[in-house]
Amino acid sequence: MIKIVKNSLIFMAVEKYNKENNIKSKEPAGPPQKSKALSTRASMENIDKNLVSIKKPYSMEADLFKVLRGKILFPVSGNPPRSILVTSAVPGDGKSFIASNLAVNMAQNIDETVLLVDCDLRQPRIHKNFGFNSVKGLSEHLSNHTRLGDLLLKTMVDKLTLLPAGKPPANPSEILSSAKMADLIDDLKSRYDNRYLIIDSPPSCMAPETSAIAKRVDGIIVVIKCGSTPLDLLDEMINNLGKEKFIGAVINQYDMPTSRYYGYRRYSKYYKKYSKG
Ligand SMILES: Nc1ncnc2c1ncn2[C@@H]1O[C@H](COP(=O)(O)OP(=O)(O)OP(=O)(O)O)[C@@H](O)[C@H]1O
Ligand SMILES: [Mg+2]
Fold first, then answer.
1. Ligand 1 atom 12: the closest Cα is on which residue?
2. How many domains does the chain contain in total?
3. pTM of whole model > 0.90?
4. Is residue 277 a part of any domain in this protein?
5. 53: CA distance to ligand 2 center in Å?
6. Which conformational region is residue 227 in: left (phi greater than 0), alpha (psi within -120 to 50 degrees), or beta?
7. 5 domain-assigned
8. What is the CATH number of the domain that holds 105?
9. Residue 3 region by backbone torsions, left for phi larger than 0, else alpha for psi between -120 and 50, else beta
């Protein structure tokens, strides 16, 4: 299920799960900490079922995000990245799913706080994963100067705050590639030194703004949908975004019987190409 190809980098597989609505859980479902219902605006039943780190914190699926967290926070060499972009080459690979679960898992298990930013202004998803309906967010901050403090959302997880995408604008590429956006990321990174920043993004081969965001972060995690993400697009993406920031790949929707022959090994060989050292 999980394979580390190179110690200094993450390379892991997240299985495709609940195919038959059958999440195997070692312990009863429920949030790992007391829910602060009064301080959140979303209730447990509105949380997306695939947000396993909240819905099924003791499941095998949630455990995979603990492994991912460990790989990020305790790299074999160097310091852990404080700002992490989660992206993929094409739509639907599982970026928002990975970013959301990773953010929850980090916030539940470290002393620092986590800010999860939805930079996919085209297909915003993060607020829905956390059970919010349409909300204002980054888009309103960048275009209307709405104060950031009025846009941040508390979640069920004490140390996790969301900056949702907001209403999709007509010009997502322009506003996310603007100097104002660059300043915002720099500000979010530097304002609190005890905070991790996790950024969800649109597919990089289709949305030029992902490259602009990549320039401001410390590290990039690439999500690969097992058996479907084209290798030539991956090459193009990693070269465009900057190999030096590439901290790892997550093979998503790994389906053991077919992946063994078709998907996983193919990506594993490819991955070695980008391994450092
Ligand atoms: N390993 C998985 N097992 C089960 N469901 C998954 C898995 N990964 C992703 N999904 C589900 O697949 C759907 C698409 O995932 P997600 O929205 O995260 O993709 P995305 O890459 O962010 O898409 P987009 O490019 O449109 O932003 C979601 O409903 C998500 O919950
Ligand atoms: Mg998404």
1. 94
2. 1
3. no
4. no
5. 17
6. left
7. no
8. 3.40.50.300
9. beta
